[in-house]
Structures are given as structure tokens and as C-alpha cells.
Structure to design on (595 residues):
């Protein structure tokens, strides 16, 4: 077993989850240290979302063991929820509530947390406080989703594809929010398709395919050690590693 | 009430008032339907009975006799129109001017049997038959006995049911579709608070929803309100909460708007027809009565009519209220258990 458990934000061993005949997650184990930013990379259907939703306590694994912040979902679910911030893939928040009303609602669920004023400032939505969620741009909605996740001043933030579909400016803006959260000592576990996002934000990444981790380590180390040829004209990137590991055929969900 | 519950209830109310269609169904629809039905079914009694007359050798005498009768309105019919006129209720009975006359009518229709008696009396009187005596008639106008008076409490009951169930059913399934429910249970929100907020949101809207058609009925259509406002409020509250429980149960599993529409229609249609909204439950055979009387809308309509028209106290409608409480509490408890959040 792992030592100094209190230093781990997330620890899971032998996670397995099936949907009928399909094995979405197949004996997956990982550990994330406190204060770390950990990325789950993988093609569509690799099992990233299933894995993160098991860690978030939204799905129950068929087999395996999960510990988050030293607590377990079955026995300490309510206490654990107070300390997590979660952003789901493709959640559309209520369109006819304003930004401020949405944040006030989420803030009310937590015993402690940040004020609505602080939250809109952190995600730079001060000018949109009174706008309906339905009138926001994609990037603004995504920032609001992250603000909802930050409402309880969490120790650990789970983000499922936080910047998918956003333009480069919106992505950078969101990265800034996440970097500030980390600078305050927060831990982040995120999934992403974007290799540059993983390279720029994550201390460590795990590449997942067919429900298993096929490579794990610091982005820089992966680039150096794993089949990413450094050609004369440019340095290898994490994207080269990813393509070498998961192949070039298209994945459909 | 915890802050979370307050915020969830506020969110529910805000989403509702920002949805113009929802407001239309809740407030304008019952008034429109009351007006339409009041126009279609005006007070009975004074209206002359429509009688048809076909051509024939004795038609002139019959025509003169029936024209003279104040309570009969005569319509000349061509032979090919006879069947249609009877079927559509354009005339209740057709007189064929033979000697003695022939009456064509459907004896299973009460209004046709009554019309036949009026025609018979008028024709015999015209032929000079003496009346053995003339009864004294005492016309009595009982307040609240018109069809429209009877109808409005039923429309209010129907509205409490349908806005409650559609409002809750649609918004919950939409929140599930958009994964808002999943996002909420990913937060520390207590699940019970979410369901309770749906109920509390209803209570706030119940006031205007019942009051608007009630005031419209009383002022514009002259419906009497004989019961106390407090009794009407309690019946509304119990009825409104009852259908919220049922609405939450119907919305607890479906994952598409098509599915929830089907389930809601299936749940409500029997009550639209059988619970005495447009016509009395006594029209159904005795064998069905135990089922019909156990339906929540039957209980709500009976209780509304008792307190509004008959001035009944809450004690008189305690049975109906108890039935409504059971119809609210049991589905709510089941919904809390089987609710699909993710």
C-alpha cells in the first residue's frame, strides 16, 4: 500500500468499470500528490471521463479502491463533497438564471467558500454578473462552470475537458484561473485532448487508452524517453508522444 | 429553511417567471377555457327547445300550433337533412305531419324525451283538448346551479393538476437532459432539498393560479363564492402539493422530453375525462366509481365545489383532503428513492 496517505490527494487501485460488454476502465491505478496538477490524456472513448467520474463519486466502480483526500465515498461522501470542486464535461447550466444567481446558488451548498464578488472577479466575469447564462459565449460559460466549481474554496478541483471548443484567448484565460488556483496550494485533476494544455498546465500526465494507463510521467520526461523523435527543425512535443502511443487511426465515441 | 433550500426555490421561481409560456398556461388558459365553455353552454331553462318539421299535407296546422308555443323553436327540415339534424342536436325531435302526428327522436336522449312532451302538449292543446287542471309553477333560481358555476371549480382543479405536473415534469427532465441534475449532485447539495424546492416553488405560484380564475368567475361570470377564503386556500394548497408529489414521481426516471410528455398525458388523461371537470362523475357506471372516487383530481374537484359553491367547511371535505395528502406524500417518498440524478 501507499505510504504517507495524507500527502495524496487522490489514490485509486485496480479501478474497473464495465458498460455491458464494453470495459470502459480496466484495472486502472494512479496516485496524485497534494498540490499537483495531474492530466489524464487519451483519445475519445479511452475511459478518461469514466475514470474521473469514479474519482468524483458520481459513478461506482465494478471493482477497485478509491481514496480522495484520505476519505472514501461510501463512508465520508458528504464531507468529501464539501472539499471538492467539480466541472463536468458538457454541463449546460440553467439558461434563464443570471451569472450572479447561478453562483449564489452553488455557493449556498457549501459551509465555507468564496463570496460571489470574489468568484466573478477570479474568472473575470464582472461585466456579465447580470447576464443570463443563455446569453454567454462558450468561453464565458466555461469560466462560469469553473467558478461554480470554485464556489466552496475546494482543496481539489476535478475538470473534465475544461477548454474543449474554446478559442485560444478563452483557453489562455482559463489556464490563468487554474494557475492561480494552484498557486494558492490547490490540487487539480483534469482530462484533456489538448497536448499543449497538458504540457503547459500539468506536472504529471497519464496517457489512457482502452481503459488502462499506457504511459505516465512528467510531460518533459515523456517527450524525452518515449518515441518522440527530435527532428532537426523542431523539438518533439507531447503530441508526438501521444500519437506514437495511441496510433493514428480515428477514434469515434 | 436552509440557505440552499431558499436558493433552490428562488432558482425554480426565477426560471418559471422567465418562461412566458408557463405563465400563459398557468394564468390565461383557465380564463380562456371558462369563457369559451360559458359561451358554449349558457344557462339552461329559458332557451326554447329546437323542434324539426318535415313537409307533408298536415304541415300547415302543425306549424301554426308549434309557432304559437313559446317554449318551442321550429325549424323546417328537408327529408335528406333529418338524420343529420338529429345527430348534431340541431333539433331534439322531428314532427312528421301525419294524422295523428309521428314523432322521430332518440329516446335515450333526455332532451329529446322532454322535447317530445312539449310538442305533444302543444299539438293536443291546439286540437282543443281541455286541460284537466293547470299546476302552479314556482320558478326557483338557486345560486351556483348554472353549468358555468359548476364548471369553474373543476377548471381550477384541472389547472392545479396540469400546471403542477407539466411544470415540474418538464423542468426536471430538462434539467436531467442538460446534466444540470448531475452537476448539482456533484456539489454537496442535499437531494431532498432539490425536490422540496420544486414543491415550494409551486406553493408561491398556487395563489395567483387559483385566485385569478376564481375572481374572474365571480366578477365576470357571476359565480357565487359561498365558502371562506381560508378554506379555499387550504384546499388549493393541499391539492397543489399533492400534484407536485405526483409530478416528481412521473419525472423521476425519464431521460427525454418525449418520454415525460407521454407519461404525463397517460397519467392525466383519465382524470381529465373521469374526475368531473366538464361533466359529473355520476355519468360513469357504478362499477367504475370506486376507481374514479380514488383519483386525486376527483377529490380536489369535489373539495373545491364543496367549499366554493356549497360553502362547506374544511371538516366536511376532510376525507378529500386526506386522500390528497396520501396522493402527495406516497409519490414524493417513492420519487426520492428512485430519482435518476445522473
Amino acid at each position: 500500500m501507499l505510504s504517507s496517505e495524507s500527502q495524496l490527494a487522490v489514490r485509486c487501485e485496480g479501478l474497473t468499470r464495465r458498460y455491458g460488454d464494453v470495459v470502459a476502465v480496466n484495472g486502472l491505478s494512479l496516485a496524485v500528490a497534494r498540490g499537483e496538477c495531474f492530466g489524464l490524456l487519451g483519445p475519445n472513448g479511452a475511459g478518461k471521463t469514466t475514470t474521473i467520474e469514479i474519482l468524483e463519486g458520481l459513478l461506482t466502480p465494478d471493482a477497485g479502491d478509491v481514496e480522495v483526500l484520505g476519505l472514501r465515498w461510501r463512508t465520508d461522501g458528504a464531507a468529501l463533497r464539501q472539499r471538492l470542486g467539480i466541472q463536468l464535461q458538457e454541463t449546460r447550466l440553467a439558461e434563464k438564471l443570471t451569472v450572479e444567481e447561478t453562483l449564489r446558488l452553488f455557493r449556498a451548498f457549501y459551509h465555507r467558500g468564496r463570496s460571489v464578488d470574489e468568484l466573478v472577479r477570479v474568472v473575470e466575469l464582472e461585466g456579465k454578473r447580470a447576464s443570463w447564462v443563455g446569453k454567454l459565449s462558450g468561453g464565458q460559460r466555461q469560466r462560469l462552470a469553473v467558478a461554480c466549481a470554485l464556489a466552496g474554496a475546494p482543496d481539489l478541483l476535478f475538470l473534465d475537458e475544461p477548454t474543449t471548443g474554446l478559442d485560444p484567448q478563452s483557453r489562455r484565460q482559463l489556464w490563468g484561473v487554474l494557475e492561480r488556483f494552484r498557486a494558492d496550494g490547490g490540487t487539480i485533476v483534469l482530462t484533456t485532448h489538448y497536448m499543449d494544455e497538458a504540457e503547459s498546465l500539468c506536472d504529471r500526465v497519464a496517457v489512457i487508452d482502452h481503459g488502462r494507463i499506457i504511459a505516465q510521467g512528467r510531460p518533459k520526461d515523456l517527450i524525452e524517453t518515449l518515441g518522440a523523435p527530435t527532428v532537426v527543425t523542431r523539438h518533439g512535443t507531447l503530441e508526438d508522444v501521444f500519437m506514437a502511443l495511441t496510433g493514428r487511426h480515428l477514434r469515434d465515441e | 429553511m436552509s440557505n440552499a433550500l431558499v436558493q433552490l426555490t428562488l432558482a425554480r421561481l426565477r426560471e418559471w417567471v422567465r418562461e412566458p409560456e408557463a405563465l400563459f398556461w398557468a394564468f390565461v388558459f383557465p380564463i380562456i377555457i371558462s369563457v369559451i365553455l360559458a359561451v358554449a353552454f349558457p344557462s339552461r331553462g329559458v332557451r326554447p327547445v329546437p323542434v324539426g318539421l318535415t313537409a307533408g299535407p298536415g304541415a300547415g296546422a302543425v306549424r301554426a300550433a308549434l309557432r304559437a308555443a313559446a317554449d318551442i323553436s321550429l325549424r323546417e327540415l328537408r327529408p335528406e337533412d333529418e338524420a343529420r339534424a338529429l345527430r348534431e342536436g340541431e333539433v331534439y325531435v322531428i314532427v312528421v305531419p301525419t294524422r295523428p302526428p309521428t314523432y322521430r327522436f332518440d329516446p335515450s336522449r333526455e332532451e329529446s324525451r322532454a322535447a317530445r312532451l312539449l310538442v305533444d302538449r302543444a299539438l293536443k292543446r291546439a286540437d282543443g283538448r281541455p286541460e284537466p287542471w293547470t299546476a302552479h309553477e314556482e320558478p326557483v333560481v338557486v345560486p351556483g346551479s348554472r353549468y358555468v358555476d359548476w364548471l369553474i371549480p373543476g377548471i381550477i382543479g384541472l389547472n392545479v393538476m396540469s400546471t403542477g405536473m407539466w411544470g415540474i415534469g418538464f423542468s426536471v427532465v430538462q434539467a436531467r437532459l442538460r446534466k444540470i441534475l448531475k452537476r448539482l449532485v456533484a456539489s454537496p447539495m442535499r437531494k431532498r432539498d432539490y425536490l422540496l424546492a420544486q414543491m415550494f416553488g409551486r406553493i408561491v405560484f398556487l395563489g395567483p393560479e387559483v385566485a385569478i380564475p376564481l375572481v374572474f368567475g365571480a366578477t365576470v361570470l357571476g359565480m357565487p363564492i359561498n365558502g371562506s377564503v381560508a378554506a379555499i386556500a387550504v384546499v388549493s394548497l393541499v391539492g397543489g402539493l399533492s400534484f407536485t408529489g405526483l409530478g416528481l414521481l412521473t419525472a423521476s426516471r425519464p431521460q427525454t422530453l418525449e418520454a415525460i410528455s407521454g407519461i404525463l398525458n397517460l397519467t392525466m388523461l383519465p382524470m381529465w375525462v373521469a374526475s368531473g371537470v366538464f361533466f359529473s362523475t355520476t355519468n360513469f357506471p357504478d362499477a367504475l366509481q370506486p376507481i374514479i372516487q380514488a383519483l386525486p383530481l376527483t377529490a380536489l374537484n369535489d373539495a373545491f365545489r364543496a367549499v366554493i359553491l356549497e360553502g362547506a367547511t374544511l371538516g366536511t371535505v376532510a376525507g378529500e383532503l386526506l386522500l390528497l395528502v396520501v396522493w402527495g406524500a406516497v409519490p414524493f417518498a417513492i420519487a426520492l428513492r428512485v430519482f435518476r440524478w445522473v
